């Protein structure tokens, strides 16, 4: 049985942290929503969506730690979308390229770490 490579662990922890922040953001949006006058407003909808996305993201991070191929595919899709978004941001606003370049670099690093030889062995087990 292949042991989990450090790169997969790193990507999983980053995914898990992102999910936690998304979940916290959703809870904060719901907390702010009553102050806006109603739970049916935009803050409430954004809060509920963020909570669901946060929970799913945390589950994907746990899946990566457990060697789930589905979690690997979902993470790959998100990283590829992040790359596409970064490319669009660079073209759409050439004056502000630092953040999209960093985002693209992190996505590429994440993809590389998920598809090294050791990572491939880990996800095939």
Automatic annotation (TrEMBL):
It comes from Herbiconiux daphne. The keyword Cytoplasm does not apply. The keyword NADP does not apply. InterPro entries: DUF7144. Keywords: Membrane, Transmembrane, Transmembrane helix. The chain crosses the membrane at residues 7-31, 43-65, 72-91, 97-116. Residues 8-112 form the DUF7144 domain. Coiled coil: none annotated. Pfam families: DUF7144. The lineage of its organism: Bacteria, Bacillati, Actinomycetota, Actinomycetes, Micrococcales. This is DUF7144 domain-containing protein.
